[in-house]
Predict the structure.
Amino acid sequence: MKKLLRELSMPEDTCLIVKEETGQEFTAPFHYHQGYEFTYIVKGQGKFYGGDSVMNFKAGDLYLFGPGFPHFFVNDRSLNRQSEHVHSIFVQFHEDFMGREFYQKSEFSQLKDLLNESSRGIKIRDPSNELQEFMMAFPALPALKAVINLLSMLENISSLPDHGINYISSSLYRISTEEKESKDKLERVCKYIMANFKDEVTTRDAAAIVSMNEAAFCRYFKRRTTKTLSQFVNTVRITHAIHLLTVSDIAVSGICFACGFNNLSYFNRQFRTITGNSPLSYRREFNLS
């Protein structure tokens, strides 16, 4: 049985690992790490699931995930022409990559606070050119310069004002022991939803994917995601609607049906519940920003 955990296997004399991945799609399963990870999206767009949230991602996005924070990316295949590939850079490191006493020094208290806050997942809002250059430089850097680069990134991000950081998960989100011991059930369900949200998604089909009866599945899914299946699917659909509202001029009625809703009034209600705005107001405010 494939485990949910992706281990960070580092030689004892290695401070960090840099990975660069390209391909037709993001292939990492729903997973988490025992250490910390910066993820930078060089190319690609689609849906991102992390903790208890679903959001759109695009090229230029920068994330910091703490130990145990579950996440995965699903690129939008409908926008992925044969000549277009996804491209991402990951930097993984343990908390003690500079020694166990490093964060005990008062000079580094901001870095310690940042890493503690990453347990909810962090998305850097509009990362500066400097931060993006830091990430792009990692694959070619020798070991010592990579460590210096990492410290520079951490210092830069820890000094950002509050509005420069978005927490991915809600303040109620907690990483549970069960989550760390879980297998790949949630991964399979999430992939089913991400692949089928534009069509009908049923509890019966989702439960069948993980060989559970519907009642047990509903309890399991709510416990793991803090949402019912219907709430989760609607969140994915509204997340896709936000993407279409901001990158296209498709009419709201067209977006409603393109996202899997079959009733415009219900779509408008769900959009307002999740975003606090109507679709038209959201598009208007985005265009003015």
About this structure: The chain has eleven helices and nine strands. The mean pLDDT is 86.
